[in-house]
C-alpha cells in the first residue's frame, strides 16, 4: 500500500493533491493498487464538485491582456496564447469581463448581443478553442453576465423604444415625468441618480417617456418584474453553459430591482448636516430604493437552478456563480449564499475585507474573523481589486515598500480560507496609472467626473509581459498607454528572479493547493491584541498546522505565537515561505519580521 486510508481521506477534496500524493508516495517503481486508483477517481469527482472552494480565479480584462492581431486591443486568441503562463501561475479559473458584441461605451458592459463574441475580441470559434485549451490545462472559463441592463443598441431596447405598445416595451423601466403634459416632459420621475453621474432617467422623445438607467444613458435597465426577462436570461445562461463555461460572474446584481413606488432616495449628509456632494457634483444618495431590493434573491436562486441543470459531459462539475456584491455588512453578504433549500451564489464577493483601504491590523482581523465565523458553512471569496478599483499599490502602498506590501496583501488573499480573485497583473505588481490629462481619458466616467474622478483607465492598462515596445502586449498602438515602469515590472524579468513578486504569488498559490491546512483548513486568529502584526493559524483535522504572520509596519517586529495563554505549544517550525532575505525563526516564541515581512511555517 502506498497510502493509508486516513491519509487518503485527508486529501479527498482535491484530486490534484491526491494525484501529487499518490505520485510521491508511489515513486520508486511501486505500482498503484486498485483501491488507491478507485479512491483517486472518487477524489477527482469530488474535486470537480468542490473545485471552487479553494480556487484561484484570475480576472482578465480582455482588452488589455494580449493582442494578437495588432489592433492595439487584446483578444481571445491572446488569452489562449497565454494559458501556459496562467497554468504555471496555478490558476483554476479565468473570469473574462464581457466579450460579447457591444458598442463598447462601457467597454463591454453594454451588451448588444448575448450570444456572440464581439469581432474585436474574436469569434465564437475562438471562444470554443479558448474553453477547450483552458480545459486541457484544468482551467475553467467564467463569463461575465450582465443582467441589470443591456446596451441601448440591443434589439430588445430598439423594439422597446419604438412604440409604447411594442411587446418589448415592458422589458425596460419606462415612466412618465413628474408634471409631464401633452407637450412638456416635466421633471424626471424622482431623484434617483446614475452611479455614473446625474439623473438616472433619460427622456425619450419618440415615445415621450423617461427610461431608467443605473449606469450610462446607453445602458437602459431591464425590468425584472417582467417574467419574460427571467426566461430570456435563463436561455442565455444555458447557451454558454452548453459551450462548457465553468460559471458566471453576475454583474451589478444587487441593482436588478428598484422600489416600484419610485420613492425618492435619501440624501447622505456630512457631520455638519450638509449634503455630501459626489465627484460628479451631485448630492450623494443613500441607494436605499435602487439597491438590494426584494426580488433579487429569487432571481439568483433561479440562475443557480439553471446552472445546476447543466451536468454537461464536456466539462463536468459545479458551474460556480460569483456575485458582484458590494454590500454594507457581513450579514447582507451571508444572505447572498441563499439557503440549503434555495441556494444562490457559491461565491459572492466579500468586499468587506477588500476595501478596508488601509493597513489596519485590527480592521483586517475583525473582517477576516467575520468571513470565517459569520458566513455559516459557506466559502468566502476574497479579493483586493478589479477593473473598477485602483490596484493594490494605490490603496495600500506607501511608494517605498510597495512590493513588500503586495506580499502582505497577497498573503492575506491566498493564505486565508476560501476562494481568491486575482486581478491580472497584480501578480507582477502592476501599478495604477491614471491618465494625467482629461483629453487622454477613455472611460466616460473619467470625463464626466474629471478631475475628482479620473475614471478606471488607471487599473486597466495593458499587461506587462516584457520590456520590449508596448511590453509585449501589442505590435500596434495600445488602446491605453503602457506604463513606463514596464521596463522593470514585467513577467519576463520576474520569471527569472526568485525574489520577485511573481515568484511569491506562485509559491503562495502552490501552498494553497498542496498544503492540507491551506487547502481545507479553518482560519484562527493568533496574538489578537497585536496592532502591528496580523497572525493566524490554519488547521485541518489530521493535518500539520500552519502559522502565517504578517508585519503591517515599515519597522521590524517580533512576535511570540506560543506565548503563555495562547493555547499554542512551542512546537518546532518548518518554513514554508518567508520574505526574501529573512532568517528562519528559532521557534514559535520568536519570529522576527522585517518591514512588511511575511512568514509562513508549518508546525512539526
Ligand atoms: C460593474 C462592472 O464591473 C463595471 O465595470 C460596469 O461599469 C458596471 N457594473 C456596469 O455594468
Please give a structural write-up.
The chain contains 18 helices and 18 strands. Residues 1-33 have low confidence and may be disordered. The strands form four sheets. Strands 9-8-7-3-2-1-11-10 form an eight-stranded parallel beta sheet. A five-stranded antiparallel beta sheet has the order 12-13-14-18-16. A three-stranded antiparallel beta sheet has the order 4-6-5, with no helix packed on it. The chain has helices at residues 5-10, 15-25, 34-50, 76-81, 83-89, 124-136, 155-160, 227-242, 296-309, 330-335, 351-354, 361-373, 392-396, 402-414, 444-449, 491-495, 501-514, 516-520, and strands at 56-60, 93-96, 140-146, 174-175, 201-204, 209-212, 247-251, 320-323, 347-348, 381-382, 419-423, 522-526, 533-539, 546-551, 557-559, 573-578, 591-593, 598-603. α2 (15-25) runs antiparallel to α3 (34-50) and α14 runs parallel beside α17. It folds into four domains: 5-49, no CATH class; 51-151 and 227-262 and 287-502, Alpha-Beta Barrel (TIM Barrel); 152-223 and 263-286, Oligo-1,6-glucosidase, Domain 2 (Oligo-1,6-glucosidase, domain 2); 521-603, Golgi alpha-mannosidase II (Immunoglobulin-like). The protein starts with a helix and ends with a strand. It is α/β, with parallel strands linked by helices and 604 residues long. Helix content is 28%, strand content 13%.
Amino acid at each position: 500500500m502506498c497510502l493509508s486510508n486516513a491519509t487518503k481521506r485527508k486529501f479527498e477534496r482535491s484530486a490534484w493533491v491526491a494525484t501529487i500524493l499518490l505520485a510521491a508516495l508511489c515513486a520508486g517503481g511501486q505500482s498503484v493498487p486498485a483501491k488507491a486508483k478507485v479512491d483517486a477517481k472518487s477524489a477527482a469527482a469530488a474535486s470537480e464538485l468542490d473545485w471552487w472552494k479553494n480556487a484561484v480565479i484570475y480576472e482578465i480584462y480582455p482588452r488589455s491582456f494580449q493582442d494578437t492581431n495588432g489592433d492595439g486591443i487584446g483578444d481571445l486568441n491572446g488569452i489562449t496564447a497565454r494559458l501556459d503562463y496562467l497554468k504555471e501561475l496555478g490558476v483554476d479559473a479565468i473570469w473574462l469581463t464581457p466579450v460579447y458584441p457591444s458598442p463598447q461605451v462601457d467597454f463591454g458592459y453594454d451588451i448588444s448581443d448575448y450570444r456572440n463574441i464581439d469581432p474585436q475580441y474574436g469569434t465564437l470559434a475562438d471562444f470554443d478553442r479558448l474553453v477547450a485549451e483552458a480545459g486541457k490545462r484544468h482551467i475553467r472559463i467564467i463569463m461575465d453576465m450582465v443582467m441589470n441592463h443591456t446596451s441601448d443598441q440591443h434589439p430588445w431596447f430598439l423594439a422597446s423604444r419604438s412604440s409604447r405598445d411594442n411587446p418589448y416595451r415592458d422589458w425596460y423601466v419606462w415612466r412618465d415625468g413628474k408634471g409631464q403634459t401633452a407637450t412638456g416632459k416635466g421633471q424626471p420621475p424622482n431623484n434617483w441618480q446614475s452611479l455614473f453621474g446625474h439623473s438616472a432617467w433619460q427622456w425619450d422623445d419618440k415615445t415621450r417617456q423617461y427610461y431608467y438607467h443605473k449606469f450610462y444613458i446607453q445602458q437602459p435597465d431591464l425590468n425584472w418584474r417582467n417574467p419574460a426577462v427571467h426566461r430570456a436570461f435563463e436561455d442565455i445562461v444555458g447557451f454558454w453553459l452548453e459551450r462548457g463555461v465553468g460559471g458566471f460572474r453576475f454583474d451589478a446584481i444587487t441593482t436588478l430591482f428598484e422600489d416600484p413606488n419610485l420613492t425618492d432616495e435619501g440624501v447622505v449628509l456630512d457631520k455638519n448636516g450638509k449634503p455630501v456632494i459626489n465627484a460628479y457634483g451631485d448630492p450623494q444618495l443613500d441607494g436605499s430604493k435602487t439597491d438590494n431590493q426584494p426580488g433579487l434573491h429569487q432571481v439568483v436562486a433561479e440562475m443557480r437552478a439553471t446552472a445546476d441543470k447543466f451536468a454537461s459531459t464536456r466539462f463536468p462539475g459545479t458551474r460556480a456563480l460569483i456575485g458582484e456584491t458590494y454590500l454594507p455588512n457581513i450579514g447582507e453578504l451571508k444572505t447572498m449564499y441563499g439557503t440549503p433549500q434555495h441556494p444562490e451564489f457559491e461565491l459572492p464577493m466579500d468586499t468587506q475585507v477588500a476595501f478596508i483601504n488601509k493597513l489596519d491590523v485590527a480592521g483586517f482581523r475583525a473582517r477576516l474573523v467575520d468571513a470565517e465565523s459569520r458566513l455559516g458553512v459557506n466559502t468566502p471569496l476574497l479579493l483586493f481589486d478589479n477593473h473598477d478599483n485602483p490596484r493594490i499599490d494605490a490603496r495600500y502602498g506607501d511608494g517605498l515598500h510597495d512590493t513588500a506590501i503586495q506580499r502582505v496583501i497577497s498573503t492575506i488573499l491566498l493564505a486565508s480560507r476560501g476562494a481568491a480573485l486575482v486581478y491580472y497583473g497584480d501578480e507582477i505588481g502592476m501599478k495604477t496609472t491614471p491618465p494625467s490629462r482629461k483629453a487622454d481619458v477613455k472611460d466616460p466616467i473619467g470625463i464626466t467626473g474629471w478631475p475628482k474622478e479620473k475614471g478606471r483607465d488607471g487599473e486597466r492598462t495593458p499587461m506587462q509581459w516584457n520590456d520590449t515596445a508596448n511590453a509585449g502586449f501589442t505590435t500596434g498602438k495600445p488602446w491605453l498607454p503602457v506604463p513606463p515602469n514596464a521596463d522593470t515590472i514585467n513577467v519576463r524579468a520576474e520569471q527569472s528572479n526568485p525574489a520577485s513578486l511573481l515568484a511569491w504569488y506562485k509559491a503562495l498559490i502552490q501552498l494553497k493547493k498542496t498544503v492540507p491546512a491551506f487547502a481545507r483548513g479553518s482560519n484562527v486568529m493568533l496574538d489578537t491584541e497585536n496592532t502591528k502584526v496580523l497572525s493566524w493559524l490554519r488547521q485541518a483535522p489530521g493535518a500539520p498546522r500552519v502559522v502565517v504572520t504578517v508585519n503591517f509596519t515599515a519597522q521590524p517586529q517580533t512576535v511570540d505565537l506560543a506565548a503563555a495563554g495562547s493555547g499554542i505549544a512551542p512546537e518546532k517550525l518548518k518554513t514554508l515561505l518567508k520574505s526574501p532575505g529573512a532568517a528562519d525563526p528559532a521557534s514559535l516564541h520568536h519570529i522576527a519580521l522585517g518591514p512588511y515581512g511575511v512568514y509562513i511555517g508549518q508546525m512539526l
